[in-house]
Each structure stands twice: as C-alpha cells, then as structure tokens.
Design a protein that fits this description.
- 71% of the residues lie in helices and 0% in strands.
- The chain has 91 residues and is an all-alpha fold.
- The chain has one domain.
- The chain is elongated.
- It starts with a helix and ends with a helix.
Length: 91
C-alpha cells in the first residue's frame, strides 16, 4: 500500500517539475523513501534518549535527505548548463 502511494506522489512530482527525473535514480525513488521510513521506525524503536529526542533529529535529517535527493539542485543545474555548452560549442 505504501509503495504504490509513494510512486503516485513521485509521478505527480515529476510531472509538475518538483521532482527531477534522473535516469539512474528515478527507478529507486520509491525504494529510497520506503527504506528511509523503515530506518526511522527502527531508530525510534531503539531510541533510548529522553522523550525520544534523538528520533526527532533523525526524522528531520531523513526528510532533508529525501527531499534534497528528489528536488532539483545545484548539481542538476550545473550538469544542464554543461550539457548546453557542449551541445552549442562552435565546431
């Protein structure tokens, strides 16, 4: 149930430009989200910190990582720029 829902969200995000369609990574986006969820759940179960404070930290870091991995970023912009320059260079 989780994976089809995540795939639907990723497809919508790809269509509206919020998620970058990367040739090598696009096929593992849903797996990455599922594994991140499982990692947080495992951490939460084993968290011995007061009021599960360390779980709050890992949730925040995991969300930042996943959103950074899915979103357009400076590397994508740089590669796009480089690709354009190579294609348009004088021959």
């Amino acid at each position: 149930m989780f994976i089809p829902y995540a795939k639907q969200l990723i497809d919508e995000g790809t269509q509206n430009g919020e998620i970058v369609l990367r040739p090598l990574l696009h096929n593992v986006y849903t797996t990455m989200i599922w594994q991140s969820f499982l990692q947080v759940l495992h951490f939460w179960v084993n968290d011995q910190s007061s009021h599960k404070a360390e779980t709050d930290v890992i949730v925040e870091k995991t969300i930042h990582f996943v959103f950074d991995a899915l979103a357009p970023n400076a590397i994508d912009s740089g590669l796009d720029y480089l690709k354009f320059l190579i294609q348009k260079r004088p021959k």
